[in-house]
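Handout for the seminar on molecular recognition.
Each group receives one record of this type.
Step one: identify the two inputs.
Step two: read the structure output and locate the region that could contact adenosine-5'-diphosphate.
Step three: write two sentences on what you found, then compare them with the reference statements printed after the record.
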Amino acid sequence: MDLNRNDSPHNGPRNPDDKQKKNIWLILIITVVAVLAIGSIYNMISKSQYTQTTWTDFRASMQAREIVEAEIQYDRVIYLTREEAEKPAAQQKACYTGLPSSYQQMELADELIAIGATVNRVITEDNSTLMMILYYLFMGLLIFGFMSMLTKRMGGEGMMGGFGKSKAKMYMEKQTGVTFKDVAGQDEAKESLQEIIDFLHNPQKYTDIGAKLPKGALLVGSPGTGKTLLAKAVAGEADVPFFSISGSDFVEMFVGMGASRVRDLFQQAAKVAPCIIFIDEIDAVGRTRDNRMGSNTEQEQTLNQLLNEIDGFEPTKGIVCLAATNRPEILDKALLRPGRFDRRIIVDRPNLQGRLDTLKVHTRKIKLSEDVDLKKIAQATAGAVGADLANLVNEAALRAVRKGRKAVNQEDLLVSFETVIAGTEKKNTVLTDTEKRLVAYHEVGHALVAALEKHAQPVSKITIVPHTSGALGYTMQMPEEEKFLNTAEELMTELKTLLGGRAAEQVVFGVKTTGASNDIQRATSLARNMVALYGMSEELGLMAPASVSNAYLDGQTYLDCSQETSAKVDEAVQRLLNKAYNAAKQTLTEKRALLDEISLYLLAKETITGDELMAYVNADQSQPSEPEQTEEA
Ligand code: ADP
Ligand code: ZN
């Protein structure tokens, strides 16, 4: 969502007139070249219509009275010999010869008439220069007009703008004037970026110790979450120039253009280093290269150039490349390799506190009336990103002006909330209260089941802030260490955790929602693997009726067995899933009070950490266990 892109490079302070001028120059140059080319081609064609002869030949034909028709132009004679004239009209070819300057045109005409030739035309004045000028002028105007029309049609900066340096939508700010104070929330992201700032301030400190300096970081998050803003703030904090360009600007229709633009960008940056290069929408160039039909050489060249540039600059130079994307999964692996964009900085949608802070940042310079309660607005805007909130505040201010008021009141904010946020509801998920409750219980269901199991991976974060992937909330589990082997118990626990969401919906509300669909798919495929690949079911024992087609390609499994076995596999999968689901339901029923408590807390805070979750769980466990109180709700 790009509601408020006022600060974005495209609308930045770069002077649009400059570009217009460049474009006109470009068109002019192209016009001249085209006219000259057309002129010379025309010349060639027109000459090839005639048989070139020499003056001596011509005189010989005259003497032999072989000429029937002639046209005398200022410096040439075009004539038809008798031999040619006797041929059918279509095959006749006139001759062409230069006229020596010592000859008078009229004199020659008289001579020709004397030998009985017809003289069609005699041109005594040298008007060829004038004609040429007129011709070039005419062609020039024609081509110029055509080109301008073409560029206009293509959105003002279409094809003609696509040449080399002239268009590069690169945008450089000596000082961004943005600091971390202007970026609300996003504390984790700021923290990760702090090191880069420090490095830009004082590269010596790092090189002295022999540390490899960071070259790039990837900012990952939905549009409007403040990635550009953060990058600018890094430049502002470090007090270095800020270069920005959008990945889509590299995508050119001419092979090699994108690459030359990348080279240009890095060259310019190297001149003013230390500096920040910000590449927005890097997925436009950095899309993974394989498994596409045919090869897109242009994109490939651009991407290679980008990789070369990143590898090429000395880390001590102090160039840091920040790139933004909301689809990190489609990026070419080469981009993410160590030494390139190997750091990933998540720029999340803001939670309640983050939204409140964003509103505060954007109302700093706005006169608010007494009745304004920003917290209420923040509560209402779950799922909104920074750009939405900035836009909301601005809309409210405009509304206040329209109504002739001196300050923005709560009503202004509420009304613009409806137009700005609700208007984008389809793109952005803004949940109703009931939905939020369902999502909260669902997520806590996952988290609580995991927290109570000893084989589970620890929960690191639970959130009901909708996510880019379309998930309305999620529970993140972080393995303590990277694992390559799993036991059957661990997999069973994972099944239970996956189904914990649906179990909570059932236990608390007695409903089934579509929100569990992804969980169920994952659980099913895990259970299927347990049965058919890992030999973990009672029914089939050690038999592995499935094979993995090609672990390197897509790792898809397919069943390689009889119909009966296949049916057995299905049964076994079903049984495993039911077992896990029932276990999850039982856990949640037993711990209903804890489930309620944590869910309410999550509803209020929207995002909670694993530690907060464990604090609740531990507090519960340290209490003497009460007699079972398992009434269904
Ligand atoms: P992105 O690059 O992620 O699409 P931008 O950085 O362009 O998003 O954000 C657009 C605008 O939204 C910013 O210029 C700013 O006004 C507002 N904005 C976004 N996130 C924040 C934030 N965390 N704090 C303050 N303003 C924000
Ligand atoms: Zn779930």
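Reference statements: Residues 442, 446, 501, 516, 519 surround zinc ion (ligand 2) (CB under 6 Å). Residues 1-16, 154-168, 550-555, 627-633 have pLDDT under 50 and may be disordered.
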